[in-house]
């Protein structure tokens, strides 16, 4: 990231925010930034950790194995993926897919928070500990907080597992499914 100071509050549209991210976050050669995708505004926003290999290749969030699993559970919960805004805390893939570091999260967070303000969701789902620690509680443990509804600036927030963490764990799959079913119900209740 450059040392440039920007006042993100002055940015009032997603295209400008995206262009700023394109100038600031530098992906590895051959990779793309993954800004996020979905309707604007959206009633539901999903926040993941950081783009993986497939995402960096395509420039789209959650299009790899974790994304396919996510799609399956969204569908089971009666939530259409195309109605959801999906993004990540980090906009570029950390080298070697490692867990994002504190400094990376700190420099990416203002962009995510502005993005959320512009999407103006009624419900946010934090997928995994990086998302929940970034936007809700810095010391939260996902195993303790998952499935518990919280509020952030008037928006309902529910933490759940990251889909990549449930692959080989039937119990976690059930809990993930339960959380998304809850989300579907809440969204329908808000209609
Ligand atoms: N994992 C994430 O956290 N985000 C993606 O977009 C893909 C995998």
UniProtKB/TrEMBL annotation:
The keyword Iron-sulfur applies. Coiled coil: none annotated. CDD domains: UDG-F4_TTUDGA_SPO1dp_like (cd10030). The keyword Iron applies. This is Type-4 uracil-DNA glycosylase. Pfam families: UDG (PF03167). Residues 35-181 form the Uracil-DNA glycosylase-like domain. It comes from the Bacteria. Belongs to the uracil-DNA glycosylase (UDG) superfamily. Type 4 (UDGa) family.
């Amino acid at each position: 990231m450059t040392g440039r100071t920007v006042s993100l509050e002055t940015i009032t549209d997603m295209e400008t925010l995206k262009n700023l991210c394109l100038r600031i976050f530098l992906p590895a050669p051959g990779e793309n930034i993954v800004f996020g995708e979905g309707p604007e505004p959206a009633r539901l926003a999903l926040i993941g950790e950081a783009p993986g290999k497939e995402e960096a290749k395509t420039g789209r969030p959650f299009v790899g194995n974790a994304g396919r699993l996510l799609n399956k559970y969204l569908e089971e919960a009666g939530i259409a993926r195309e109605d959801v805004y999906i993004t990540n805390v980090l906009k570029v893939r950390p080298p070697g897919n490692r867990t994002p570091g504190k400094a990376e999260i700190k420099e990416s967070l203002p962009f995510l928070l502005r993005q959320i303000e512009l999407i103006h969701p009624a419900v946010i789902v934090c997928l995994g500990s990086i998302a929940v620690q970034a936007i809700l509680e810095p010391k939260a443990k996902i195993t303790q907080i998952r499935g518990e509804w919280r509020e952030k600036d008037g928006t309902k927030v529910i933490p759940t597992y990251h889909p990549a963490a449930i692959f080989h764990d039937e119990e976690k799959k059930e809990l993930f499914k339960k959380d998304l079913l809850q989300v579907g119900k809440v969204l329908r209740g808000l209609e």
